[in-house]
Amino acid sequence: MSNWSAENVPVLDIIELALCHRRFNCSAAQKYIGYSPVVSLEEGVALTAKSTQLARESSFSSYSDTDEESKVHKLLGGGKVAEILLWRNEQRTFTCFLLLVFIHYWFFLSGRSFLSSLAQLLLMIAAALWGYSILPPTM
């Protein structure tokens, strides 16, 4: 069993893995289970190109300018969560994304136990609130 963790992998290996080209071959599936693609590669590329052209020409790109809510917006409840998940306010969405990345790192990738991570986070919040409390009301 390998003992893989993020600390054991050099950064250059991660970058190389992210930048490498991947080509998938379905010949084994064709040979052993009789797989045949529903759409040929050429037809798939043509359909994809056609759909992206339709998306550019349609009202999807200018949808955010209208007042009508989308079905997805309604299904998500139509509130702040929907606005964030649908990237309607990009600054707020990016801030939430960075916050989630920070929380993920803080609790899961830092190598500390959950309780020690929680204790350090609460200590930082308490210190920040104390610092805020000693600021003058007007600057």
TrEMBL record:
Keywords: Endoplasmic reticulum, Membrane, Transmembrane, Transmembrane helix
Domain Reticulon span(s) in chain numbering: 81-134
UniProt feature coiled coil, ranges: none
Superkingdom field: Eukaryota
Subcellular location: Endoplasmic reticulum membrane
Membrane topology: Multi-pass membrane protein
Statement: the UniProt record of this protein carries the keyword Membrane: yes
GO (cellular component) term, any one: endoplasmic reticulum membrane
Transmembrane segments: 92-108, 114-135
This protein's name: 3beta-hydroxysteroid-dehydrogenase/decarboxylase isoform 3
Natural source organism: Capsicum baccatum
